[in-house]
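User: I'm writing a short report section on ligand binding and want a predicted complex to refer to. Could you take this sequence and iron/sulfur cluster and write out the structure as tokens? A short remark afterwards would be nice.
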Amino acid sequence: MRVVTRKTNLLGLSRQELEDLAEAHAQPRYRGRQLYHALYARRERNLAALTNLDRQFRAILAAENEITYPEIQRAFESCDGTIRYLLGLSDGKSIETVYMPEEDRVTLCLSSQVGCAVDCRFCFTALLGMQRNLSAGEMLGQVLAVAAARRIPHGARLNLVFMGMGEPLLNLPAVMKAVRILADPQGLGIPLRRITVSTAGITPRIPDLAREPMRPKLAISLNASDEEQRTALMPLNKKYPLAELLRVCRAYPLRPRERLTFEYVLLEGVNDSDADAQRVAALLRGMRAKVNLIPYNGGPALPYRASPLERVLAFQQILTERGIPAFIRISRGQDIRAACGQLSLEGADATAAREAGL
Ligand code: SF4
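Assistant: Sure. The structure tokens for the complex follow:
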């Protein structure tokens, strides 16, 4: 019987891990640094082509290892230029990554888990349940796969938001490992100020993020103006109440000119009244914060409707009058189900979905 041994994917290994790998093959540690630069800064995918490495080392590397990105299975293109990518992972599971081009920059919305355990009532991803955490390599792979597909050059202005499938603070070690490689000038070279991690409010993990020496920006999914309303929309509020979440946010060590971002999905007749806006302003009073107002992206499977534009504008006005900067974020790619809270693996072919256990 022929034994098939799987190669190890080097994507996701840190500089130190690659130096250790070089050393384990009796190579100087700087060979590991060369490999790191090739993987992330030069985005090489063919180990045999790394001619600056010692020939013997290269041959051993290529025999035992590989550099593989998640496979683009489908791409759904919106009339506004947004593209929702369905990416296949090595175990047959699927995730989604969204590409959003703007005039002078591109934003990528990344997944941190397959599915999500948090169960926000207005979110399609919640309907999938939790499948598993993504590795750092699978998060880096989303950036590299889409950058290759869209021919985004190294050094182009790229914003990254961990707002796709999953709750990043429930997979914090892997998210931070990916962030360190993303932000490293010898890695993918994306400045930390262009990387945002968004949480539904996993309160105990927020101080952990605050202690990270290389820290991305933080966004918090607020979506309600009091405890009862938030528990109805986001059942995790029972475990991590709003009052405690805001206490932790007030203690968060912001850098000069940095603000916390609070995301607020506006649901008609649920959380969009003048009284809600007044309560949100009171909750955030004195905090260095801004609010992104996101009109809901409705769908047949969920019982909510988007707030009308005049309601969104009135909500914004109440916040700004009370000194809270508030911005309306019209979701991109609504026609291809790529907007906030819409990621649901819709369009995954039947086999991929079955294999993914969805
Ligand atoms: S909104 Fe985010 S945290 Fe909430 S269920 Fe959806 S993916 Fe999970």
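A remark for your report: The chain is about 30% helix and 20% strand. The longest strand covers residues 94-101.
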